[in-house]
Write a structure and sequence with these properties.
heterodimer, A: 3-stranded antiparallel sheet, B: alpha+beta, Tetrahydropterin Synthase, Chain A, 4-stranded antiparallel sheet
Chain lengths: 297, 365
């Protein structure tokens, strides 16, 4: 019976010891074994790991995923004295957990160091770059990727000292400070106003040109028509004249006589006064009677 | 149902079962343990749905192959399962934190407001969940940097008009390259610039440009309309002029023809008895003239006085200058010629000796 009890106690003790020295490390982290508060071995990868039984040993877990650091917009002066606000983002990961633990302890500590380093690097690089490196109509002049890479290298050099690898750095955004932005907006407004005015005057010019052309075309059309009309009338005149001339040649005297009578008829109207001589051939018959005829003959 | 001892029958049954169980206590304990074990094992069944990938972790370490959709068994305490959505497309809005559009600097040193949307699919669940703390934030930062870089070489005109589509495509290609380089396990479906506009504070100036452009179009089309109208009217007018002249021409010719025919007929008639016919024509004309005109017969011997009395001193005749004072001894015929009176047909006309009348020269309409 005593032996049985000792056996049970032994089994329980061994299981407890085993369980307390087993550590499950997650895929996303790396663990450092610690014995009496001091790092006692190399980093342990994901899976089941064995350490010195608690409370002698324990582990320190560090995130081994890639992390994103965003640096708030900071104002820099370019070499051509333009103020620019730059946003930076960096992807980093803990490369040397031991060093990381010793130097910065945790992510917050690391990020504060990285932020300081990045701003310093960015300031140095911006300070010797022209503003065309940040924006330019000539595609070859914009050097944002190159500048970002330079920042990354500079930060990397220092960050290796606390076990961090900076994988990528990006200048994510470029802004103008408030006053400069206002100036640019008002310049844009002025440009647009100019364009609007130009468009309006272009429209007026084009319209007037069209209208002038229309007027010209209209005059030409009417002039051509008037010319054709004159030609027609001339032909009419000529043909009529030829016909009249034929008649005239037939009996010129008769023609003249008839034409003259016709003209008299046309000349006389309701307002005309005609004096007739009582001695004339028309009236003498009326005034003198049939006897008047005889003595003259 | 109760027996004489007074104990209820169901209490009796429980008591009997307890005694029976106690007699088999070892087997009962084992059965209970077995049930608990089976129960806990049964909790290990899991289902991975369509559009998900399962990541199986054994003691925290991920199995390299994601578990496809379907049922699987996860050993309790040893394994665990994480599900990651992979099939469905995710959206990422690129804007400021407060949702307002981004303001980017263009190559010509202008500003442009942009709002973009990225659609992507996670193709590598392990990368998404295990290699990055926040893969989406990384994607967002990468997208910002590429959008900034690409905009920095464009002109504001181009982004606001036809360059937008090219810009989207450039950003998509660059961003995909960057994602591949980083091993984000992301496949971009599209990058869309959903809004590109003037910066805050300059919108009205841009609107004014587009309305000026519209006004230009309107002014030009108005002028075009006027031109068409004017030309149509001018063509109609020209046509009218030509037609009028044409009909005038025909009219002249036909009138002349008619007159000539009439004259021919007259000439034939006159050929018979010339003198009588001419006298008849003369008298007929006189009749017609007299029908509408005022007719005054001058009495023999007192012609001049009569005319003077009738017309009054200084009066013109027919709008002409006043007649010269007739001198004594002038005949009535002389006087009537001087006064431009219609001459009474003299004898010489009958002989065909009139001064030549003006040729056929009818007035135009």
């Amino acid at each position: 019976m005593k032996k049985k009890i000792i056996g049970i106690v032994a089994v329980v003790a061994v299981s407890a010891l085993t369980l307390s020295s087993l550590v499950v490390v997650d895929e996303t982290e790396v663990a450092l074994p610690v014995r009496f508060g001091r790092i006692s071995g190399g980093p342990m990868g994901p899976g089941l790991n064995l350490i010195a039984p608690r409370p002698i040993g324990s582990v320190f877990r560090i995130d081994r995923r890639k992390l994103l650091l965003r640096i708030p917009p900071t104002e820099f002066l370019t070499v051509d004295k333009k103020n620019l606000l730059l946003d930076l983002a960096a992807v980093y990961r803990v490369e040397d957990p031991e060093l990381f633990l010793q130097r910065v302890r945790d992510t917050a500590g690391a990020e504060s160091r990285l932020t300081d380093l990045s701003i310093a690097a960015l300031g140095a690089i911006a300070g010797r770059s022209p503003s065309e490196s940040f924006f330019s109509a000539e595609p070859g002049k914009v050097k944002l990727p190159e500048l970002s890479e330079e920042v990354r290298q500079r930060v990397q050099e220092a960050a290796l000292g606390f076990g961090i690898r900076v994988e990528t750095a990006w200048i994510t955004q470029v802004h103008f400070p408030y006053q400069n932005r206002e100036a640019i907006v008002s310049r844009m407004r002025a440009e647009r106003d100019r364009i609007a005015r130009r468009l309006r005057s272009e429209g007026e010019e084009a319209a007037q040109k069209i209208e002038a052309e229309a007027e010209q075309a209209k005059r030409l059309l009417l002039a051509e028509a008037a010319r054709d009309a004159e030609i027609s009338r001339g032909k009419g005149d000529a043909d009529a004249a030829r016909l009249y001339a034929q008649a005239y040649r037939l009996d010129p005297k008769l023609y003249e006589f008839i034409r003259t009578l016709h003209a008299y008829e046309k000349m006389a109207g309701p307002g005309t006064t005609v004096f007739l001589d009582s001695d004339g051939p028309v009236m003498k018959l009326l005034t003198r009677g049939p006897g008047a005829e005889a003595p003259q003959r | 149902m109760s027996d004489p001892s007074g104990i209820p029958s169901h209490v009796e049954a429980v008591w009997r079962f307890t005694r029976w169980l106690y007699g088999r206590r070892t087997s009962a304990l084992l059965a209970a343990l077995g049930a608990v074990l089976l129960g806990s094992l049964a909790t290990g069944f899991r289902i991975v749905r369509n559009g998900e990938a399962g990541l199986l972790l054994r003691f925290g370490r991920v199995r390299p192959e994601p578990v496809p959709p379907g049922a699987l068994y996860v050993v309790p305490l040893v394994e665990s399962l994480e599900k990651v959505g992979v099939g469905n497309e995710r959206k990422l809005e690129l804007s400021r934190r407060d949702g307002s559009p981004l303001e980017l600097i263009t190559g010509d040193e202008n500003l442009v407001s942009v709002r973009a949307q990225i659609q992507y699919r996670a193709e590598d669940p392990i990368a998404l969940r295990m290699r990055y703390l926040d893969a989406e934030a990384v994607l967002r930062s990468a997208a910002f940097s590429i959008l900034t870089r690409r905009t920095a070489t464009e002109s504001v005109e181009s982004i606001l008009t036809d360059g937008k589509v090219r810009l989207q495509e450039d950003v998509r290609l660059d961003l995909q390259k960057e994602c591949d380089r980083l091993g984000l396990g992301v496949r971009l479906a599209s990058v869309a610039i959903v809004m590109a506009g003037p910066p805050v504070g300059a919108e009205d100036a841009f609107t004014a440009v587009s309305s000026a452009s519209a006004e230009r179009e309107r002014r030009v089309s108005e002028a075009d309309g006027k031109r068409s109208e004017a030309l149509a009217l001018a063509r109609a007018e020209a046509d009218r002029l030509r037609r009028e002249a044409g009909s005038w021409q025909r009219e002249q010719v036909e009138t002349a023809r008619g007159a000539v025919e009439k004259f021919r007929a007259l000439a034939r008639e006159v050929a018979e008895e010339r003198s009588a016919a001419l006298t008849r024509l003369h008298l007929e004309t006189l009749e017609r003239v007299a029908a509408s005109a005022r007719l005054i017969v001058l009495p023999p011997g007192k012609k001049t006085q009569t005319i003077r009395t009738l017309l009054g001193p200084g009066a013109g005749i027919g709008g002409q200058s006043p007649p010269p004072a007739p001198s004594k001894g002038k005949t009535g015929e002389e006087l009537s010629r001087e006064m431009a009176l219609p001459p009474i047909l003299p004898e010489d006309i009958l002989r065909g000796e009139l001064p030549k009348p003006p040729g056929p020269n009818p007035k135009r309409p």
